[in-house]
Amino acid sequence: MAKFAANLSMLFTEVDFLDRFQAAAEAGFKGVEYLFPYDFEAAEIRQRLDDNGLIQVLFNLPAGDWGAGERGIACHPDRIEEFRAGVDRAIEYARVLGNTQVNCLAGIQPEGVSDVEARKTLVENLRFAAEKLEAADILLIAEPINTRDIPGFFLNRTEQALALFDEVGSRNLKLQYDIYHMQIMEGDLAPTIEKHLDRIAHVQLADNPGRHEPGTGEINYPFLFAHLDRLGYQGWIGCEYKPRAGTREGLGWLKSVR
């Protein structure tokens, strides 16, 4: 049976971030994920997790200036030292929060940087991060993201990501498969998940179009959930969607799959 984690960067946004942990627990979620923890003390977040009986599932490595539109720096040749310092910072937080995986956002390919140079930088950074995180018993994951929502994002297809992972050559690097992004970029969701299940460590969801909750768009989520169960997927499914009419009002889909 699938395990669902609330993405607190997109759900329960009507309340302050630290209050979203309680809201997620009250809605029936057992785990949480979000973009970044770094604006808060790790101990403060840990207390919210403990108070609400929640598991910290996932957060991202530091990804540059998010407010200015940056979406990761792992493919930026001039930001390597910043990226490596971010790995250390993520490890510090993960040790306190108890999560055993973190996600790397490849980033938007910088203007003037060739495909070859961006790929080389990303491979080297992933190799560094995978090794450093493995020593801390933390899994590194990375995700392809659609180029409609984030034009120029460097990783945008499953096979592209896995070929790059092969070049990295680490057993401590796996795929975050976001159903919404991959529906836009390549479709063929069920066969792709089945083909690469052993390399998928985390799944995220939203429906398309609109990036709203399951049941609001074209994706057959009841089929996909049953498919994941048939395949024996043991990881979490992160609910990273924009509620169409309020988080609590749009949770009927979750009740139907329990």
From TrEMBL:
Residue positions of the active site: E143 (proton donor/acceptor), E240 (proton donor/acceptor)
Organism domain of life: Bacteria
BP term (GO), one: glyoxylate metabolic process
Gene3D superfamilies cross-referenced by the UniProt entry: Divalent-metal-dependent TIM barrel enzymes
Pfam families per record: AP_endonuc_2
Ranges for domain Xylose isomerase-like TIM barrel: 21-256
Keywords: Isomerase, Pyruvate
Molecular function GO labels: hydroxypyruvate isomerase activity
Family the entry assigns: Belongs to the hyi family.
Annotated protein name in UniProt: Hydroxypyruvate isomerase
